[in-house]
Amino acid sequence: MSTFQAPKGTYDLLPPNSATYLAVREAISAPLRNSGYGYIETPGFENVELFARGVGESTDIVTKEMYAFETKGGDRLALRPEGTASVLRAALEANLHKGGNLPVKLWYSGSYYRYERPQKGRYRHFSQVGAEAIGAEDPALDAELIILADQAYRSLGLRDFRILLNSLGDKECRPVYRAALQEFLRGLDLDDDTRRRVDINPLRVLDDKRESVRKQLTGAPALGDYLCEACKAYHEQVRELLTAAGVAFEDDANLVRGLDYYTRTTFEFVHDGLGSQSAVGGGGRYDGLSEMIGGPALPSVGWALGVDRTVLALEAEGVTLDIPAATAVYAVPLGEEARRVLFGQVTALRKAGIATDFAFGGKGLKNAMKSANRSGARLALVAGERDLAEGVVQLKNLESGEQTAVPLDAVVDEVRRTLG
Ligand code: HAM
């Protein structure tokens, strides 16, 4: 133990469990890479205004949860609380949207920071894999993204997740609904904080989990009744495409996301084994975000899946991923000369693409064999003075215990043959 500990709300990823995180990132990104999404990486921090304008001045993320700071040079920056605003900023800055090749399809993977009250599944540093399709208004694009996330979760072996789907309307119909909702909410018995929320972001009140608020919400106007014809038709197409693809979803008229940029299609992936932090991923359309951050009109859609919560979902379902052992061969030298010779063999095996490790630090045979077994290796290469005098090493199958002498110049071929 050192004097220091990981900061509150954070944790370290350590082997062997860290392999599951890598496998989850890989599984989520594989369907994207297979569907025309290119990899993008943006800085871990941005101008604080990008998030204030993009995510929304009234959201918890911006008002309470941002790690914002001023640099020595006087710049106001924030650690990124999410990826969409940054990815859109980067795409606009690099003019990826020009040249007629829309949508620009991008995927990303990285760390995000929110100053939240930590609990299981809710951290101050967490990890997302996300996708954004920028510059096209096409229900097939919304459907594509939902289908790819569904595919990713299924490829991991997850079954107990549900897809909640809603439409939040557009700049035509949402303001009308917002006004109707405000009128309804202003007639209720609410505390000052919630009244302020009614003024700034009334849709969020629908998401209030307190019973005292919930019971007053019966009879609140429903957004679905206010959708304009264009939004209704668009949403119906998304639903039809998902159904045709065999992706099950639940219509959830109360699905309100915690970020302000959403329009039309919104969705959340929830997992029933996770308790209160049940959203493993979420996303939707954000047709107005580009203009909010000073760009041209670029209707877009995207999602981000939480890696931490996806790993918790795997645990909740008792799914263990089939992760191949990192080491296939473990070399155990007995004596100085053997160290030199076997180290050479280790380098040759690695060059041949075979994952190999070595008993460093002059351990005795017993300890070295223990390390070999712990590494998960299938084969051990063992050599002592007598073997070297005969120009061989012993190739030991750690599963069967079988051992054969292999000439030094045939080790790579023999190992390859044995591993298959
Ligand atoms: P979000 O719903 O805020 O959306 O986050 C997406 C996912 O990130 C959540 O479902 C959850 O799994 C994970 N997550 C969020 N906060 C935490 C936390 N404190 N601890 C652990 N996991 C967390 C967005 O971030 C949008 N940018 C998604 C998007 C992309 N919309 C359009 N494009």
TrEMBL record:
Gene3D superfamilies in UniProt: Anticodon-binding domain, Bira Bifunctional Protein, Domain 2
CDD domains recorded: HisRS-like_core (cd00773), HisRS_anticodon (cd00859)
Compartment(s): Cytoplasm
Classification via PANTHER family: HISTIDINE--TRNA LIGASE, MITOCHONDRIAL-RELATED, HISTIDYL-TRNA SYNTHETASE
Originating organism: Streptomyces ramulosus
InterPro entries hit by this protein: aa-tRNA-synth_II, aa-tRNA-synth_II/BPL/LPL, Anticodon-bd, Anticodon-bd_dom_sf, His-tRNA-ligase, HisRS-like_core, HisRS/HisZ, HisRS_anticodon
Aminoacyl-transfer RNA synthetases class-II family profile domain segment(s): 1-324
Family statement: Belongs to the class-II aminoacyl-tRNA synthetase family.
Subunit and interaction comment: Homodimer.
Protein name: Histidine--tRNA ligase
A family per Pfam: tRNA-synt_His
Stored NCBIfam families: hisS (TIGR00442)
Listed GO MF terms: histidine-tRNA ligase activity
Enzyme class, broadest EC rank: ligase
Domain of life: Bacteria
